[in-house]
Every structure is written in C-alpha cells, then in structure tokens.
Amino acid sequence: MSTCILDLAPFLPSDEKLKRSGLPDKALHLKGRAAGLAGQLNPVTAATLRRHMEVINSYYSNLIEGNRTKPHEIRQAQHGDFSADPVARDLQQESLAHIQVQSLLAERKLDAEKVFSSDTLRWLHRAFYQRLPEHQREVHDEATGEAETVEPGQYRRRTVSVGHHIAPAAEDLPTLVDSFFDIYKPDRHPGTDKIIAVMAAHHRLLWIHPFLDGNGRVARLWTDEALKTAGLESVGVWCLSRGLARGSDHYKRLLHQADHPRQGQLDGRGALSEKTLMEFCDYMLDQALDQVSYISELLHFQSLRHRVGRYVEARNDGRVPGQTRPLKAGAARVLFAAFQEGELARSEALGLTGEHSERNARRLLSQLRDEGLLSETNNRSPLRWEIPEHAEPWYFPELTPGV
Fold this sequence. Notes:
Elements (H helix, E strand, L loop, with lengths): L14 H5 L3 H18 L2 H22 L6 H8 L7 H23 L3 H4 L2 H12 L8 E3 L6 E3 L11 E2 L2 E2 L6 H12 L8 H16 L6 H15 L10 H7 L1 H10 L16 H26 L1 H16 L13 H12 L1 E2 L1 H7 L5 H13 L3 E2 L7 E3 L6 H4 L8
Antiparallel strand pairs: 1-2, 3-4, 5-7, 6-7
C-alpha cells in the first residue's frame, strides 16, 4: 500500500487549536530566551562553547540510542586514546563520528533551502555512517535475524516496522521525503509557527523512517539545524538532546503516541492524531526552553564569575581531580575576563594577574595555557577562554553526569 504526504497530516495543529493552546506563547518565549543568550555572549566565546557542546550533544543524542559512552571517554578518543575493549571502542568511534558530522555541518553554513532538502538529510546520514567501521554498519532484522548492511546516505530498500508503526514503503520514500521538506520549509509558516513546525517535523521525519538505521541521530542533527533556520539564535550553545535524553522514556513514549491515527471527529482532520502531535510539540518546546534557561543562567556574568572563583578555590584546596598545582587568585580575574571579552591581549592579561613581578605574571599565564584554561594560536596571539575537562564541573554544574 503506497503512502502519500497526506498520510502525515496534520502537518501542524490547526490555527484554531494553536490559538487555544500555549504553543505560540512558548515558541515566542523560546525565541526571546535564545536571542537573549546569543546577545550576552562574545562571538569568540560562543564559538568556544559550541565546540565544547559538540561533545555534550554527541553524548546525549547517542545516549538516547543506548550508547552510554561518557564525555570523558569521548574526549579520550578524540586524543587517540581508545578503549582496549572492542565494544567500548566501537561506541567511542560512534560518538566521534557524531561530533565530526556536527563540525562539518557547521562549516557548511547552510541556508534554509538547503537545510530543508533531501540532499542534506542524505548527506547527514552518509557523513555519519562513512565514519564508522564497516562492521558497525551491520544491523539485524528483528523478525528474521538476518544481517543487513546500512548503505550510507541511501534510503532503506524494504519496509520496516518501528514498534506498532509500519513505516512507509521503500518505493515511496524519494517522493515522500521531498514533499515533507516542501511542507515544512520555513517560508511556508509565519512568525513563531516556524519553530512549532520544526518540532512537528521532528516527529513526522521519524514517522517516515527514511533509513534502515540511524534515523534518530540524523533527525536530531537535522532538527538542530532546522531550528537555526527557524530563527532560534544560540543553537549549539544549548543542547536540545540533553533535555530529550534526561527524559528519554517520555520522549520515546510521546513519539510513539504521535504515530497514532486520528481518534474521532474532534481530533483534527488529518490521518494522524492532532491531539498527540500537539502534546509532542509542547514537550519539545518545554525541553528547548529548559535547556536555553539552564545555559543562560549558568552564563550570566555574575553567576559565572562566582563559579570561576570557586574553581580557583577548589584548585587551591586540592578538590579538582588530576590537578595538583595551586592557582594564584589572579587566575580567576584573567579567566573571567577572557570569557567575557572572548580573547585578551597579552598585556591586558598580564595586568589582570595582579602580580607585581612580570615574571610571575607570565608564569601564571603559562600555567593557565598549559592546563588548557586558556589557548593561543601562536606566542603573540591573544589568549582565549577554554573549558578543559577538569574545569567543566565547576563552570557548568550538572551539564554531564560524573565520571
């Protein structure tokens, strides 16, 4: 039985239902909070945060899929230190592939037309799976037990079921995916409806289930990029997948419920349930708001200044694992100024140390560079704020689980 785009309807809740719901207000609030976060950050600092959050996003998105590789294990793999255990090593490689795809996606600087296209969707899948060893592309048919190989960037070639949902026939996928992107592209939706549309599209893309495997990761990568084109600033500084993973069972349950067909005459006019789609969109907006608010509060200047100071105190009390050298009090001033300004001229950094001796001031800056708290591109370049693993729990409490 063939599937057409109308089998995904409603694409959005009706105007009448939206007006009576809290979704437009939440979307507007989310847009304001995201813009406020972008406005409070120096662009250089924001770029540092986005690079750091690539590991966090990889951890949480893969966690939803059952990969429990911790961020410190991912960072070890980034430095070539892989586990001797083959299973753990495979999971580290999976996390690295996710991070590399995020970086490549950021470099592409896609506009809305390209984000909302089957070419980009297939590129995401191909870029991820091409970075995995061949044995990690193998999946097993739950019904027959037979092994199949995932083809990077290629739509699945057979019908599959996801729970109780039978996904569209393979031969319908090219037309269906193209129609999907045409329906959800931002210029078809006014104002903050663009944001609600992306949240709805997240479910509908997973309903289509275009690939044999990897649909969840690809959908979350695509959703992050789509939210940028929908007008959400600071995406990448905050991490939607963190919210979804912290309530993973609820996220999956709402995804499943949004698969349900329409339940009676009061449940919209499409083939699928309008009520459960609204519940799913509401949940997604809540998670995004929670994550933007969490990061915004952590990055508030006075709050971060306090936590940088606490980190320096902890260093001097011996409470930072793996760091035995104390830090002089002036380190806190240098680190916070580097965060606030994005980068510091060396002369400015030397003055902020509070050291009367230039030699001692240079020693302190050298220590901060050696320990990854500051970075430089050469020995005359400005100094930039960084987030080494030993400082993350102090700068960003509860961002990730403990080691």
